Amino acid sequence: MTQSFTLGFSCPDQPGIVHSVSTFIVEIGGNITESRQFEDRENQLFFMRVEFDVKSKTDLESIRETFTKIAEKYSMKWRLADSTQRERVLIMVSKYEHCLNDLLFRHRSGALAVDIPLIVSNHRDLEEMANWYGIPFVHISQSNGKDAAEEQLRKVIADNGIELIVLARYMQILSGQFCEDFAGKIINIHHSFLPSFKGAKPYHQAHTRGVKVIGATAHYVTRELDDGPIIEQEVARVDHSHTPEQIASVGRDAEAHALARAVQWHAEHRVFLSGQRTIVFR
Amino acid sequence: MTQSFTLGFSCPDQPGIVHSVSTFIVEIGGNITESRQFEDRENQLFFMRVEFDVKSKTDLESIRETFTKIAEKYSMKWRLADSTQRERVLIMVSKYEHCLNDLLFRHRSGALAVDIPLIVSNHRDLEEMANWYGIPFVHISQSNGKDAAEEQLRKVIADNGIELIVLARYMQILSGQFCEDFAGKIINIHHSFLPSFKGAKPYHQAHTRGVKVIGATAHYVTRELDDGPIIEQEVARVDHSHTPEQIASVGRDAEAHALARAVQWHAEHRVFLSGQRTIVFR
Amino acid sequence: MTQSFTLGFSCPDQPGIVHSVSTFIVEIGGNITESRQFEDRENQLFFMRVEFDVKSKTDLESIRETFTKIAEKYSMKWRLADSTQRERVLIMVSKYEHCLNDLLFRHRSGALAVDIPLIVSNHRDLEEMANWYGIPFVHISQSNGKDAAEEQLRKVIADNGIELIVLARYMQILSGQFCEDFAGKIINIHHSFLPSFKGAKPYHQAHTRGVKVIGATAHYVTRELDDGPIIEQEVARVDHSHTPEQIASVGRDAEAHALARAVQWHAEHRVFLSGQRTIVFR
Amino acid sequence: MTQSFTLGFSCPDQPGIVHSVSTFIVEIGGNITESRQFEDRENQLFFMRVEFDVKSKTDLESIRETFTKIAEKYSMKWRLADSTQRERVLIMVSKYEHCLNDLLFRHRSGALAVDIPLIVSNHRDLEEMANWYGIPFVHISQSNGKDAAEEQLRKVIADNGIELIVLARYMQILSGQFCEDFAGKIINIHHSFLPSFKGAKPYHQAHTRGVKVIGATAHYVTRELDDGPIIEQEVARVDHSHTPEQIASVGRDAEAHALARAVQWHAEHRVFLSGQRTIVFR
Q1: B199, B151, B201: which is closest to B175 by C-alpha?
Q2: ipTM of the assembly?
Q3: Residues A179 and A221: beta-carbon distance below 8 Å
Q4: pTM value?
Q5: D contacts of B257 (beta carbons < 8 Å)
Q6: Which of B178, C175, C208, D75 is geometrically suited to a Cys-Cys bond with B174, CB 3.0 to 4.6 A?
Q7: Is the domain of A161 the same as that of A190?
Q8: Cβ C26–B33 below 8 Å, yes or no?
Q9: Contacts of residue A234 in chain B, CB cutoff 8 Å?
Q10: What pLDDT, on a 0 to 100 scale, did the predictor assign at position B58?
Q11: Looking at the predicted structure, is the pLDDT value of residue D193 above 90?
Q12: Which of A82, A117, A144 marks a domain boundary?
């Protein structure tokens, strides 16, 4: 019986890190199947993601314990996971359905290997779609204020063991405190090629400015709106003949694709944070 | 003997324009070979570009005279040109050579059908390249101030019958008066995906922001720096492993391509101005 | 009240065509809103597509009658349609659901402006999806042979006034006679970048050959399998790390997009046949 | 003083390889700066490329000797090189100049870090371009037959310590024996999206077939013409309005880019052969 694990970490750069990690893997009887490293010379940081197989029956907790010594020695931020265990993802939506449909269709077809225990929305419009895909839908109203809504949201997150929150065109702004508490765990899709056209109606802005290429940006959410670390961007050509509505239509495809890739890479532990930037081991 | 002409115009939209134009072409014995139209409903403007062949020997001036009546009737801004007559292009450079080399190589290989009577620079670095391609090189120093330099530039433009000025990474800012006097006749290449990263060092800004796609923008020059109507944009993917220098290197290819296309389209009279936007009949 | 019409035609090239067409439009009180022409010099053919508005209440049949004289004079193959009337599209599927889902989602969201009276399949797998999108699903079994199945299919097409048949990964080969009877009215999506990798398992072929870019091809169906006129192609990058299954997954997105664009362009009467090639006025 | 080395190898897959390599690097005082691995499960092969710095003055020969034991243990095909030492590249051309100009311009601007000791051609057309870029040009005539020409070519290769031969639109076919003797050391640019349109006049074939996307393919040369392992492919959109000549013009840009990337990746030891396929650690 073979088990597969994924280890990811970042730490201050220094010699011997890869050797220590590969020694650890050999000692637990592992065989590396995929590995990526990046040395951020500017910030003197080292990033590594390694997948390895172990033939014998192995206890995740015990190998985590073994690894802790290495992690402490090198002051790592790290995560060691069973590769077959799926990330638990909460999708939040409002009224736009293209990103939700795209994520749920990929999930249904097996292309997106995550668990989606539920969908949360501040409206009821997409409940029918959630039902058809067989995912529980929870309506959290904003009518009692943002604080009450976020309290309810936090409860849902805790109750369902949510590890990642995906804002699939969720049109409410989360509080700064919420963003900080779930830093690196909320992915948003912004409907423009950030940093262009922040704020409202980016496709109208793009039309007014007469750009020839538009885009969409999947990024981690931070206190600063539309300013979080970028995970993925997708672009598409437009021209003078596109109305703002047609630009938006072209843009919706770009949004869905950028978001789907960002969610998949995050779920496969391929995305690492480095200040305002991301390292993505695609 | 067949002659080929290109007619381009914009005017307030109203019925009968295409009919009047096609009647005119039939009456001078012409045959339409390519035609494009665009109705800007927002601004109630109509744009048209039409190429037509005339079999008999025809005098450009006389058909211009004939067309003037139609042009006046519909309040057109228009241009009627012999299709085989090449646009006279002045290229301005400073020290970066990638855009100049790209334009001159396309010109030499026949892919860019324009005349380049001379190259102007505020430095002498690229004189050798100009020489090799056999294009006269004129050094206009900034040492006596911008006014003196622009006066000299204006003289060079007039003496050489220049119709289009291409700023191929020319690192001096032209005066507002100059920009206005040559409105719609100066194309600049900006080394970013406008409107992102205006101003200095855009590739460093892109690196700092951690974007996953960079771009370059060819646009007409206006008084407002980096804010003129966009003609063409080119994009390229980058990732976390790119240094600012590598981003710049990837970007240089994007700059050269966006600029070459913009110059070609302009020279083929395919670009029309509509406020801050362009109509490009590619 | 304004009505909008779309006229498309091809004919042997000769002077005066555009003038005749524009005269016709003026005479019925029309105003051209979009127009494209192409002169195929190689084959001496002329192609034109023109959209025009007519302010008064106009009878489609009477303007068709008026146009017939022009059409006959120039030996046109032509079509004149009410722009608001939607193409009636039959979608045929087998077991793969990605193209069907993509088409139905675009249809539902309004991005694909066609009527889909029903879906036909040789299997029952996608019936549930059809139901959810609210489109009638007809199962036509192959168990009584291809002839019986095609007879049933022809009846369904006639009964529903079908104008276009879309093979959205339909895994049966249609008879040569059927292909000829519906020439130019069947669009297929082939899961490779034709003419590479014709035939079975193209993604495995692509993997074996080690290509770095894969694609999908939407084309009209002819007697010769995978050899019909190409309408649209979409490409995507892959690398050595992609398994055949992952290549197929990347390819499915390319298939869905190429097919959706081909269907939309056909439905907007933007696609013209010229021998083995297509003219697409995008 | 820091030295930088690049190690690349392939070998049958088995546990412990990465550990052995990283132990070796630690023991010679090295620090890994970039590393990539790939496990080809289908063929049970393991590929690795690792760059590492060594702070002390180190003798390349002595570390090669040390590594030999590991290489033998795992039956590796390997190469260990000083990262700063440039690949010695021979460019072969005939009459087309676009690929040569692109390579030489990138070389001149520093973007392509290789040594180009000379250019060989069977014609004299591009001698002037070689001269301007300051690269010696050797004309090897085919007038005494292929054998005599290849003998002369072999001498030039030996005399100049050539490590890589780049066929930048070289229009002669090399002998099967030559291809075998320099297997994995000759890169060709084919002017189509292989495996489509093998053989002569691919752009005319593409036009006749009416494809909507064209491409270019950089590949290693083998006995079988146009059938060697693909390193890189580049694509570009065309449409019905492109003549074969315009398709060729669009294609020339694609050729130049695909070839430049292939040469750069090979020179950085990023390309590994695996049967008919390549592993490219971009």
Answers
A1: B151
A2: 0.93
A3: yes
A4: 0.95
A5: 253
A6: B178
A7: yes
A8: no
A9: 213
A10: 81
A11: no
A12: A82
